[in-house]
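Internal ticket - ligand job 108, FE2/S2 (inorganic) cluster:
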Amino acid sequence: MGDPVMEPYSRHVIVCTGGFCSPDRRGRELYSLLASLLQREGLLFGPDRVKRGETPCLGVCGGGPIMVVYPEGVWYSHVTPALLERIVVEHLKEGKIVDNAVFHRIGP
Ligand code: FES
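stdout (C-alpha cells):
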C-alpha cells in the first residue's frame, strides 16, 4: 500500500475545548463557530483551506479559550466569538496576525 495523499492546505488551527482554561467550556462553542466562519470566508476547500481540530488541553489551562495557529506557531488567549471572527478574517484569510491577542509564540 502506498502513502496516503494529503491535499494542500494553508493553516492548521487547534482549539482547546477543555474545561480548565475555560470553565464554562466556551471552547466548544468556538469550535463550532469556527466551522461556520471558515465556510463564510471560503476557507474550507482548495489549497488555501484551513484545517481545524479540537483538543482536550493545550497545556495552558488558564485565560481561555485558547487556540493555536500553525505554521506560525501563534497562540491566542481569551478568544471570544468576536475575536475569533477577527482571527479568521485577518489572520487565516489575510495573513495578518492579530498581535494584541497573542500571548505566546513558537518557531521563527
Ligand atoms: S484545558 Fe484548555 S489549555 Fe488546558
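Auto-summary: The beta strands are 11-16, 50-55, 67-70, 74-76, 102-105. The radius of gyration is 14 Å.
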